[in-house]
């Protein structure tokens, strides 16, 4: 399956509590919102991007992308965001067999994310897969068959919230991604900006 029939889901619904409540995906990184860097890297890999967020969705209007809210109330975490993204794909891109999820605060995500998942999971994305790096498992970055929508919704209804537990219970294939080189350094491709210090480090890497 080529990129013309794939949907990328950008998860921007976190509380950003370690950034003082600021919407971290919109914080400036080298003069542009963090999210702009993520869009730049994932956008060419897919036909459509959709942002999943909470609160005032209009704050993402400048990106010109569809923005949807979690369908499960109460900041239920990344599983709820992935569920919302799958629901958008089913309603707006019927026939698309899978979505690719990524966090909106990871400016160095792999530019071959979709190709690697496709290689591991088959042309039709019939197998659930998640990313792994030297730092460990990254269940927020995954290939999610839309056929899992009902099972995922049921799990959320039961109060399940831990993405890592859910993907392991469903036998997710783990796809390894090596470090990427940024500013002359090897960096985990799923480096995410959780704290002000992380933002400073990313800024230093990109301006090195």
Task: Write the topology of this structure.
Blueprint: E1 7-11, E2 28-29, E3 32-33, H1 34-42, E4 48-53, E5 67-69, H2 78-92, E6 98-103, H3 113-121, E7 129-133, E8 136-145, H4 149-157, H5 163-169, E9 173-176, E10 180-182, E11 185-187, H6 196-206
Parallel strand pairs: 1-4, 1-6, 4-5, 7-9
Antiparallel strand pairs: 2-3, 6-8, 7-8, 10-11
Your description of this structure?
This protein starts with 6 loop residues before the first strand and ends with a helix. It is built from 6 helices and 11 strands. A 7-stranded mixed beta sheet has the order 5-4-1-6-8-7-9, sandwiched between helices. A two-stranded antiparallel ribbon has the order 2-3. It has a single domain (3-206), classed as Spore Coat Polysaccharide Biosynthesis Protein SpsA, Chain A, CATH 3.90.550.10. With 208 residues, it is an alpha/beta fold.
Strand content: 15-25%
CATH architecture: Alpha-Beta Complex
> What is the N-to-C succession of helices and strands?
EEEHEEHEHEEHHEEEH
Shape from CA axes?
A: globular
Oligomer: single chain
Low-pLDDT runs of 5+ residues are none
- Quickly give the structural class: alpha/beta
Number of strands: 11
Major sheet characteristics: 7 strands, mixed
Keywords:
208 residues; Spore Coat Polysaccharide Biosynthesis Protein SpsA, Chain A; 7-stranded mixed β-sheet; two-stranded antiparallel ribbon; 6 helices; 24% strand
């Amino acid at each position: 399956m080529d990129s013309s029939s794939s949907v990328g889901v950008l998860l921007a619904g976190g509380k950003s509590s370690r950034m003082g409540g600021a919407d971290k995906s919109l914080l400036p990184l080298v003069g542009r919102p963090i999210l702009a860097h993520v869009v730049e890297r994932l956008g060419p890999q897919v036909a459509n991007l959709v942002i999943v967020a909470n609160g005032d969705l209009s704050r993402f209007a400048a990106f010109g992308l569809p923005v949807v809210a979690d369908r499960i109330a109460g900041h239920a975490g990344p599983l709820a965001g992935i569920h919302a993204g799958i629901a958008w794909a089913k309603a707006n891109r019927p026939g698309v067999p899978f979505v690719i999820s990524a966090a909106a605060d990871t400016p160095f995500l792999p530019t071959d994310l979709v190709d690697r998942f496709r290689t591991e999971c088959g042309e039709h994305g019939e197998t659930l897969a998640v990313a792994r790096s030297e730092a460990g498992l990254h269940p927020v970055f995954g290939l999610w068959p839309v056929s899992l929508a009902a099972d995922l919704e049921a799990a959320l209804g039961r109060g399940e919230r831990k993405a890592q537990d859910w993907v392991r219970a469903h036998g997710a294939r783990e796809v390894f991604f090596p470090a990427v080189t940024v500013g002359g350094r090897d960096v985990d491709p799923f480096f995410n900006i959780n704290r002000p210090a992380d933002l400073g480090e990313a800024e230093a890497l990109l301006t090195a």
